[in-house]
Design a protein that fits this description.
Helices cover 12% and strands 35% of the residues. Strands 3, 4, 5, 6, 7, 8, 9 and 10 form an eight-stranded antiparallel sheet that branches. By secondary structure, it is mainly β. 29% of the residues are buried. A hairpin with a 6-residue loop joins strand 5 and strand 6.
Length: 149
Amino acid sequence: MIVKTKPFGDIEVDERQRLHFPQGILGFENLNSFVLLDATQPPFYWLQSLDEPEIAFVLMNPVFFKPDYAPDVSPDDLEDIGITGPDDQLVFAIVTIPKEQQLMTANLQGPIIVNKRSKMGRQAISHNPRWLVKHYILEELAAVKDRAC
C-alpha cells in the first residue's frame, strides 16, 4: 500500500506494518490507523498516522537506554488489545526531539504497547512512579555505560 507521510512523502509500505489503535493515542484519540516504519537512524521507529498524514511519532524501544524498563500497566489495558503475556507484545516509548537534539526525551510513563499477533496497539499509563514523562535519553545512555564499566 502507498502511505502519505510528511517527512518522506509517498512511500510503499507492506500491509503487515499496519497497526490499529482502537482508543487512539493520548491527545490523538480520533486517530486509529497507523503504520510502524523503521526510521533512517536506528534505534528509532516512526509511527505514521494513516488518518492524518502530517501526524507521526518517533518511537524507540526503551530497553535500549533503560535496560530494566518494565511498563507496569494495568492488566485490563493489555487485555483490551489481546495481550496475554510478555511474548505477545512490543513496547515503545514516544520520543521528543527538540532543536537541541542532546535534550531528546522519552516518555516512559505512557508506553506504546502493540500486540505482535493482532497488530492492535494502545498507549497505556505506567503505575510505577519511577517512570516519568521525560527521561533524557543521552543522560540515561551515559549512566548505563558508566554502570557497565
